[in-house]
Amino acid sequence: MLCIYCGEREARTKDHVTPKCFFPTPRPSNLITVPCCEVCNTKYGKDDERVRNILTSLATTEDHHAVKEQIAEKRDRSYTRVKGISNFQDIVESIEIVARYTHCGIYLGKAPAFNLDQPTMDRFVERIARALLYQENAMEHTACDFEWKMAPDDATLNRMPPVFKAVLRCGKPKEIGEGVFSYVGYYFTGKAASLWVLNFYGGIEFMVKVREKFHRSDSS
Ligand SMILES: [Zn+2]
Question: Alpha-carbon distance 55 to 69, whole Å?
């Protein structure tokens, strides 16, 4: 079969989703693998450490036991290796100084934060969504638009219309590796759109909307 990522080349290898380096050892037995070509495997593999390092450097994920026990050390070591200088460059480029506010809008000053709005994260989120569409829905490579953002927190969710709230809370997450990665998919076979909620280390959540390009009704 063809690679589920590019749809162009024969799938001669398997890609791990979420990447193996996200998990402590011993690794869980239910890791997801999907068929992909050697070119995509190498290309995406380069993002793995960078994305893991960012996702485990957030205030909301650093307390996860996998991060505390193993991943934090691996992350920190990846910056001091001989090749670490390029990783360090990556991290510097990912940091931006942002204004911080409390819930009621009081200005707290400026602080460094990771900029998640960057091509590496776009590639990563699209790859995970494609892999889950294959895993859950047997969907081979299809031309799709991917749109993602941080999933709403509970306070935001509570202000949303009940129907939206109901949809986003009705799914039962599938979990891989004690909360290292969990996801919920809202999809129906044959439908051209799906919604995915991806959670990493119990502390950061992305919402991904996938729309097939050729099924799309021309209402937009
Ligand atoms: Zn490929």
Answer: 16
User: Going by C-beta distance under 8 Å and a sequence separation of 6 or more, which residues neighbour residue 15?
Assistant: 5, 33, 34, 35, 36, 40, 41, 44, 127, 131
Going from the Cα of 156 to the center of ligand 1, the distance in angstroms, rounded, reads 38
83 in a structural domain: yes
Give the Å distance between the CA of 52 and the centre of ligand 1: 22
- pTM for this model (two decimals): 0.86
In a domain, 191, yes or no: yes
Centroid of ligand 1 to alpha carbon of 38 (angstroms): 7
**Total of domains in the chain:** 1
Is residue 220 situated within a structural domain?
Answer: no
Asked if residue 171 is part of any domain, the answer here is yes
- Looking at residue 85, what is its pLDDT? 62
pLDDT in tens, 181-210: 999 999 887 788 999 999 999 999 999 999
Domain that holds residue 161: 13-212
Over residues 38-85, the pLDDT tens digits come to 999 999 988 898 899 989 988 889 899 999 999 999 988 887 776 656
Residue 210's SS3 state is: strand
Q: For residue 128, how far is its CA from the centre of ligand 1 (angstroms)? A: 14
Report CA(63)–ligand 1 centroid distance (Å). 35
Q: 């589920």: which residue's tokens?
A: 4
Mean pLDDT of the chain: 87
Q: Does pLDDT of 220 surpass 50? A: no
